[in-house]
Write a structure and sequence with these properties.
The complex is a heterodimer. In chain A, about 25% of the residues lie in helices and about 20% in strands. Chain A has helices spanning about 1-25, 30-40, 125-130, 220-230, 245, 255-265, 285-300; strands spanning about 65-70, 70-75, 80-85, 90, 95, 115, 140, 155-160, 165-170, 170-175, 200-205, 205-210, 235, 270, 315. By secondary structure, chain A is an alpha/beta fold. The longest helix of chain A is centred in the first third of the chain and has 25 residues, at about 1-25. The termini of chain A are far apart. By secondary structure, chain B is α+β, with helices and mostly antiparallel strands. Chain B has 6 helices and 9 strands. Chain B has helices at about 1-15, 15-25, 35-40, 40-65, 75-80, 125-130; strands at about 85-90, 95-110, 120, 130-145, 150-165, 170-180, 185-195, 200-205, 215-220. Chain B has an 8-stranded antiparallel barrel with strand order 1-2-4-5-6-7-8-9. The chains are: A alpha/beta, B alpha+beta. Chains A and B meet through helix 1 and strand 8 of A and helix 1, helix 2, helix 4, helix 5 and helix 6 of B.
Chain lengths: ~325, ~220
């Protein structure tokens, strides 16, 4: 009888634990749906990138942009090399899995001047990915992100301050405001840093590039950035799209990204932050890309909006 | 899920449902319903307090999803009241207990030099799981009396060693703990893992007496 009592108690104890975690996911239908989607997709294969650029950094290139996937973009402006929100790992945040492999091998990045982190979320601030990059770079993290930043051993680590430019050897990087949300784990939003998210404007030798990271549509911010800078290329997120009522405040969809592009007054737009991780509750993989493609054709923007495939390098000069 | 959570927690805490279950298995004994008095037992009242805390905490979380707080101190404080769970093997008994933890001092050796390596009470997850040495104090309330009291306490010195993704996916915990309960104050060796961004720790604590050990599931929200 003692054994049965003891086992009954253990069953009840384990049930309590399970019920607690069930409660965690059950407290919000949306969290539950996201969790179910993430678990479903853990078994999905990662699609390969067929034509990877083996040597992405070239001395004969004046300005190139290589979309590695998601918000990871390798930028070469003459002798300077920058990467945004590097994500090379198979998963981010344990559960969010890649749908396609990174567009380049991180070992192909043989030199690096700056790494720009837009905010703290797993798909933008991937600890494992930062460990794969050359250590001579300067790591720039968003405002207040120091308390989330391990010591990676980079030459310099700096915290961004909105509108305060960081300049080194004529490479000028200005953190600019975007509209997103803070925290890294969800539950830490209340006591985490205030507004730990930023976009960046990169200026070097007459070329100006805007990297939005992750943002909702905020015309005031985009118009102000457009007023202060003459942007050549804008890297703007277009996903996740659904569920729209939840995403709208913090993520631009393709139509809003195009409006932001107009507000910025940029010459060229490159859509990012789509088609890489299983995210949101999109009805199908590549949903945002299809919407974007339709809008480009409808508005005749083929020359100004470059919808790259993962691993594709756009040489602009 | 909420009623289920309350039910299971109540079942675990209050001995009456367990006794009911045991009597159900033992058909020779009559089945009695718990008396009203048992629901007002200090243990049950404490349980309701725990449940209310969990509900309030998740309400705070839901609120937090909708805003970026300027200070967040109240939310942080609320989260600290969420207890961890433990089972204690003690000669002749295996009571279940709730445990609350506080970290008076933590030294992090895994964080950027932009921030101080010293933390007190308000400790970010990253500071702990990227590699740290933590001095923490805990208080426990047990489901049954151990010796003459339901209460226990401990002081622990724990090292957190990152294993995967700088410790965010997986980390190792090793250390020592000095517990005070049941009129004794044994030393425990502690070994365990932390996972889920440092949010969840599974620790096993073993004393020099092979009959006395503990298993804990710890929720670290700070």
């Amino acid at each position: 009888m003692t054994t049965i009592r003891s086992q009954a108690r253990h069953v009840l104890f384990c049930s309590s634990v399970l019920a607690f975690f069930g409660f965690l996911s059950g407290c919000s239908p949306l969290v539950s749906r996201f969790t179910a989607r993430a678990v479903d997709q853990l078994g999905e294969p990662i699609r390969p990138v067929i034509h990877k650029v083996a040597v992405p950094l070239r001395s004969d290139v004046g300005f190139s942009i290589l979309w590695v996937g998601h918000a990871t973009v390798l930028i070469q402006i003459r002798d300077k090399v920058l990467i945004t929100d590097p994500a090379f790992t198979k998963t981010v945040g344990l559960l969010a899995k890649r749908s396609v492999e990174p567009g380049i091998d991180p070992a192909a990045i043989t030199r690096l001047n700056a790494i720009l982190i837009s905010h703290l979320h797993f798909d933008h601030f991937s600890y494992g990915s930062l460990d794969m990059l050359p250590k001579e770079a300067t790591l720039i993290v968003p405002p207040g992100a120091g308390e989330y930043t391990p010591e990676f051993g980079f030459a310099i680590t700096r915290e961004a301050k909105t509108w305060e430019a960081i300049e080194e050897d004529s490479l000028r990087i200005t953190p600019v405001p975007v509209q997103h949300f803070g925290g890294r784990y969800g539950f830490d939003v209340p006591w985490g840093p205030v507004r730990p998210y930023t976009g960046y404007v990169i200026e070097y030798k007459g070329i100006t590039l805007f990297f939005a990271g992750d943002t909702g549509y905020n015309p005031d911010y985009f118009k102000e950035i457009g007023r202060r800078f003459h942007i050549d290329v804008a890297l703007l997120p277009i996903a996740p799209v659904e569920p729209r009522e939840f995403m709208k405040r913090v993520h631009t969809d393709p139509a809003e990204a195009l409006q932001a592009f107009e507000d910025l007054g940029a010459k060229i737009m490159i859509p990012i932050h789509h088609d890489t991780f299983f995210q949101g509750l999109e009805p199908e993989v590549g949903y945002a890309k299809k919407l974007m493609q339709a809008l480009i054709e409808e508005r005749g923007l083929q020359d100004r909006v470059k919808l790259l495939t993962i691993g594709e390098q756009l040489v602009l000069k | 899920m909420l009623p289920l959570t309350v039910f299971f927690a109540l079942s675990t805490w209050s001995q009456e449902p367990i006794a009911f279950f045991n009597r159900f298995l033992d058909m020779n004994k009559p089945v009695n319903t718990p008396s009203m008095q048992s629901w007002f037992h200090p243990r049950c009242l404490l349980l309701w307090l725990v449940c209310a805390t969990i509900i309030v905490s998740f309400s705070a979380l839901a609120q937090a999803e909708r805003r970026d707080s300027e200070s967040g101190f109240e939310s942080w404080l609320t989260f600290q009241t969420i207890p961890s769970m433990m089972v204690i093997s003690h000669p002749g008994d295996i009571p279940f207990a709730f445990e609350w933890e506080a970290t008076p001092l933590l030294y992090s050796f895994g964080m950027t030099r932009l921030v101080s390596p010293w933390y007190s009470f308000k400790v970010s997850q990253a500071a702990r799981f990227t590699g740290s040495i933590e001095l923490k104090a805990t208080g426990q309330i047990s489901t049954r009396k151990m010796g003459s009291s339901y209460f226990g306490s401990s002081a622990q010195l724990i090292g957190h060693i990152p294993l995967m993704e700088r410790g965010e996916y997986l980390g190792l915990n090793v250390g020592v703990a000095k517990y005070a309960f049941a009129g004794s104050s044994p030393w425990f060796k502690v070994v365990g893992i932390s996972t889920l961004f440092g949010l969840l720790e599974f620790n096993f604590k073993h004393s020099s007496d092979p009959e006395i050990w503990m298993g804990t599931i710890e929720f670290r929200f700070f």
